[in-house]
Amino acid sequence: MSIRLRVVFLAWIVCLAGAAAAAPVTFSFTGKVTDDPFGLSSFGAPISGSFTFDATAIDAIVNPDIGSFVSVGAGYGFNVDVDGTAYSSTGMLTINTANDLVVGDQYGAIAMDALLTLEIFLQDSSAAALSSDALSGAPPALASFDLRQFRLFGGDAEFLGSVDTLACTSGCVASVPEPGSLALVLLALVAAGRPRSSLRGGSCSS
After folding, report:
1. Partners of 66 in the beta sheet?
2. In degrees, to the nearest 5, what angle opens at C-alpha 18 toward C-alphas 17 and 22?
3. Residue 181 and which of 45, 59, 82, 195 are 20 to 30 A apart at CA?
4. Which pLDDT tens digit goes with each residue over 39-64?
5. Are 137 and 55 in contact (CB under 8 A)?
6. What is the DSSP letter of 59?
7. What is the largest CA-CA distance in the chain?
């Protein structure tokens, strides 16, 4: 394959990666109420919900053992039904990960606004649940965590609950390459194989 064809092909891959970045991923979960200080429900009442994030979000933390991935936009956020009452916080969702800390491995999804905080928090004290702090488009194995908790905090409601199931229901992927990383690979290949005459690569437009 000629250098020019390689550049066009790799540019096409970068375009596809950019398009994939626009597709959100949704995890759904179920659980039960374990604590309700306001007395709005009862012990064991059902919880069901979902949260949506961008699987290509960039890690905001340099530390290789801790990740924080923020998704901002109308399609992202957290929705939950607690014993028949719906709660939601949309527009932004953060996935936090921690690998091999003193307290173990942690995975959390949190959305908050001025009135409400919705969160699931998972922790494995043996530090075996996660292999890195990377963000994945596939849900972590719930059985690997010894603490599996749902949390809701608001001005007139507060719930703690279990997280009994966690599954991907939309946009499921094992992992998504970052478009920026693919672009760097493309530039490196162009620099390494570029002839003296200038090359014209492809574009994302059809």
Report:
1. 98
2. 110
3. 195
4. 999 999 999 999 999 999 999 999 99
5. yes
6. B
7. 75
